From TrEMBL:
SMART domains: INB, Integrin_b_cyt, Integrin_B_tail, PSI. The keyword Cytoplasm does not apply. It is a single-pass type I membrane protein. Residues 50-468 form the Integrin beta subunit VWA domain. Residues 44-90 form the PSI domain. This is Integrin beta. It comes from the Eukaryota. GO terms for molecular function: integrin binding; metal ion binding.
Length: 833
């Protein structure tokens, strides 16, 4: 009794466990993610061999870490995520991108928000997690605050030619401070000047000239900081009035040296960290740039560092370092958020406009000869600067950053990072896309995005996923890898030296142990060319397991990779009419083991590489029963016609007359036994009836041809008309020629009979063409002769008229009025008295 109870209980428990197992399995597989039909084909993920390679290969790729996944099913571990889920992989590594805003203080003017300082750019910090070739999107908002602090540094060319400009600046210093105060209440002014490097040939190096290069002039210098930025406007006026001009020899000045020192000497100039930094550059001359210093023996490249004496304000290293390059200066100005305003004379406008194109955010204005308009110029260009917002970044090479601007109420503008026409207090935004193009050396990278001239930017930290977490927890000497002969990492074995195979089951030493073969020798039998190491193992479409190729399985189970070296398949043969091997009715894709490639095996009735050529001639039969009308060849059930015949069956001849030429071969083969072979003659769908007189048949033409050679003793013609019977047969009514010297019968073809058509034979066409050409040539020659005759007659008449006028000419004889003879005669009045 107890045994029966236990037996029934055991059966019941087994049934319940089976039911639960079925329910669990059903729950696991009842809702696989949908797979796009294109995903069933080979995809980009197939090339990866490790988890790190897989996630770096493409954002759509995922890695299956299940043990035995690839070994038991021969599936690829790296595959599309949907494919892995459909194949019930449980441990899928698929890093997902994310955008995390770390700090996002709202935009505000100074004193409005939680911070006492203005916030002009939001957000402030962002962290991105990206996979290679994946893009993350974020939005940057920019708002220029009202009454934002302005640091304005005035740097002036003080060569001798700028004397009147300096005099006007002394008078306008107070006005300048007043106008800046109308723009913002929080501003500071500074003043500096530049001349030239104090070495020959830029200046006169004689002792006297170095002390006083011109009467009343100050000794030359490269750059001098007269006044660091200061809120005291009276001090600005005082320092300007204390300044004197200097002198140099060449026309270009050391303006770029001055701009570099003004930019990088933050402490000496006094730039505030949260202010708009503006440099007003005034000059009536051009500038030296990198390389010009070699003329004076200054060959060391500009180091882009500050060399101002804190006590005197002079540049102490001007004669040791060359002038900076324009690109170097632009980098330093962008780093320090310095924006220059070039106020130059009209003569130098073109040069400085070119310079401004290479310095981000800069503007150019025309300075009057005496700088009388400098205040208005600064005001106008400041408004230009504040009415424009341009975004820049310093992203590393492996990150691609693109922008779309959203300026006020305008529509989004892709590939644009500039907004113009703005007023203080207006907000604009930019959509930013960041793509990791490749894996960097350091997976964590930082860069910033911000507007030109702003001391605020967004700090972006990018984490590029190029490694899998499972790689960090690899198990060395795992028993899964055939008795500990490898490291288990992310579900697959990384074999120790001397071992290979999916589970390190193969050894580089043979079973007998009598000889040693390295890994190349073991996989040599898996190469199509065993004598070449360049031959790909298993054609790149399988794995060499202990000397034999195990071909990969395709996601589409109907597509099969085959062959000893996985060199064949049933899906890559040539196509005809977009169908593999022309479709299943024409052929199939099989493995040609002799040629070691896939090839089409055509079904009966078809030939060709893609089975695109039909051997049947049914479509080539003309209406007269001949193949291609006897005027062409039938290839792949299509006619290739001889010239001038055309059409599907070579029955169209635009240069031939009617259907006479079409029926002529069949007529002549049946009546005279010529033109085509007896076999083709039997195929003619033409019946010939010999008549004494031709009947009148509507729609038919009277066909007239010469009797074939050898069938008449003289030049004779035969004629016929034709009609189509109800069964499709062409009935020809033919009248043979009479005796030589007589005419062939014409029956009832007088008056309203059919139109007479004659054979346009090759000789007649040739004669016609030759005759036409000769006629054209003769007409041309006649026209040339007539033209030559007309020209000759015209010239003859003109020459005769010339001769007549020459003979009738009467010339007056006179003495030159200015001629004086060599002798003179004088009469003495007293002679003889």
């Amino acid at each position: 009794m107890d045994g029966g109870y236990r037996y029934r209980h055991l059966i019941w428990a087994t049934m319940m466990l089976s039911l639960l197992s079925t329910m669990c399995n059903a729950q696991a597989v009842t809702e696989p993610p949908p797979i796009d039909p294109q995903d069933l084909q080979d995809n980009i993920c197939s090339a990866a061999r490790t988890c790190g390679e897989c996630i770096a290969l493409d954002p759509m790729c995922g890695w299956c870490g299940d043990q035995g996944y690839a070994e038991e099913t021969n599936f690829r571990r790296c595959d599309l995520q949907a494919n892995l889920m459909n194949k019930t992989c449980q441990d899928i590594t698929f890093p997902e991108s994310s955008v995390t805003v770390v700090q996002n203080d709202p935009l505000s003017d100074a004193g409005e928000g939680p911070s006492t300082e203005a916030v002009q750019v939001a957000p402030q910090k962002i962290t991105l997690k990206l996979r290679p070739k994946e893009t993350a999107d974020l939005t940057v908002s920019v708002r220029q605050a009202r009454d934002y602090p302005v640091d304005l540094y005035y740097v002036m060319d003080l060569s001798r030619s700028m004397q009147d400009d300096l005099d006007n600046l002394k008078e306008l210093a107070t006005t300048l401070a007043y106008e800046i105060g109308n723009i913002t209440r929080n501003f500071r002014l500074g003043f500096g000047s530049f001349v030239e490097k104090t070495v020959a040939p830029y200046v006169d190096t004689a002792i006297g000239s170095l002390m006083e290069p011109c009467p009343g002039c100050e000794a030359p210098y490269n750059f001098r900081n007269h006044l660091p930025l200061d809120i005291n406007t009276d001090l600005f006026s005082q320092r300007v009035n204390e300044t004197s001009v200097s002198g140099n020899l060449d026309l270009p000045e050391a303006g770029l040296d001055a701009l570099m020192q003004v930019t990088v000497c933050k402490d000496q100039i006094g730039w505030l960290p949260r202010a708009r930094h503006i440099v007003v550059y005034t000059s009536d001359g051009s500038f030296h740039f990198a390389g010009d210093g070699k003329l004076g023996g200054v060959v060391q490249p500009n180091d882009g560092k500050c060399h101002l004496n804190p006590d005197t304000g002079y540049n102490t290293k001007a004669n040791e370092y060359d002038y900076p390059s324009i690109g170097h200066l632009n980098v330093r100005m962008r780093e320090q958020n310095v924006i220059p305003i070039f106020a130059v004379t009209a003569k130098q406008m073109s040069l400085y406009q070119t310079l401004a194109r290479f310095i981000e955010g800069s503007t150019v204005g025309t300075l009057a000869q005496d700088s009388s308009n400098v205040v208005q110029l600064i005001k106008d260009n400041y408004e230009k600067i504040t009415s424009r917002v341009e975004i820049v970044d310093n992203s590393p090479e492996n990150l691609a950053v693109s922008y779309t601007s959203r300026c006020l109420d305008e529509a989004p503008r892709p590939n644009s990072k500039v907004c113009t026409g703005l007023r203080l207090g207006e907000t604009v935004s930019f959509d930013v896309s960041v793509e990791a193009t490749s894996c960097p050396d350091n997976n964590i990278q930082k860069f910033s995005i911000g507007p030109i001239g702003f001391d605020e930017s967004i700090l972006i930290t990018v984490e590029v996923a190029c490694e899998c977490e499972c790689e960090a927890s690899a198990v060395p000497n795992s028993e899964y890898c055939t008795n500990g002969n490898g490291t288990l990492s992310c579900g697959q074995c990384a074999c120790d030296p001397g071992r290979y195979g999916k589970q390190c089951e193969c050894s580089s030493t043979d079973d007998a142990g009598t000889s040693f073969r390295d890994k190349y020798e073991n996989v040599a039998s898996c190469r199509a060319n065993t004598n070449s190491t360049s031959s790909i193992v298993c054609s790149g479409r399988g794995e060499c397991i202990c000397g034999e190729c195990a071909c990969f399985e395709r996601q589409n189970r109907k597509e099969i990779i085959s062959g000893r070296y996985c060199e064949c398949d049933n899906f890559s043969c040539e196509r005809y009419d977009s169908e593999l091997c022309g479709g299943p009715d024409r052929g199939e894709c099989v493995c040609d083991e002799k040629k070691r490639r896939s090839a089409c095996k055509c079904r009966p009735g078809y030939v060709g590489n893609a089975c695109g050529c039909a051997t049947s001639t049914a479509a080539c039969i003309a209406s007269n029963g001949l193949i291609c009308n006897g005027r062409g060849r039938c290839n792949c059930n299509k006619c290739t016609c001889e010239s001038p015949f055309q059409g599907e069956t070579c029955e169209v001849c635009k240069t031939c007359i009617g259907k006479c030429s079409s029926y002529r071969p069949c007529v002549e083969c049946q009546v005279y036994g010529v033109d085509i072979s007896p076999a083709d003659c039997n195929k003619c769908n033409v019946a010939v009836v010999i008549e004494r007189d031709l009947p009148t048949i509507n729609g038919s033409s009277l066909c007239v041809f010469p009797v074939p050679e050898g069938h008449s003793n003289c030049s004779q013609t035969y004629s016929f008309v034709y009609e189509t019977l109800s069964n499709g047969t062409i009935l020809v009514h033919l009248v043979e020629p009479g005796e030589c010297g007589g005419d062939s019968g014409s029956g009832g073809n007088d008056g309203d009979g059919p139109v007479v058509e004659k054979d346009a034979s090759g000789s007649e066409i040739f004669i016609f063409v030759i005759s036409t050409v000769v006629a054209i040539v003769l007409i041309g020659l006649v026209l040339l002769a007539l033209l030559r005759a007309a020209t000759f007659l015209h010239d003859k008449r003109e020459f005769a008229r010339f001769q007549k006028e020459q003979k009738s000419a009467v010339w007056d004889q006179a003495q030159n009025p200015i001629y004086k003879p060599s002798t003179s005669t004088y009469v003495n009045p007293l002679y003889g008295k």
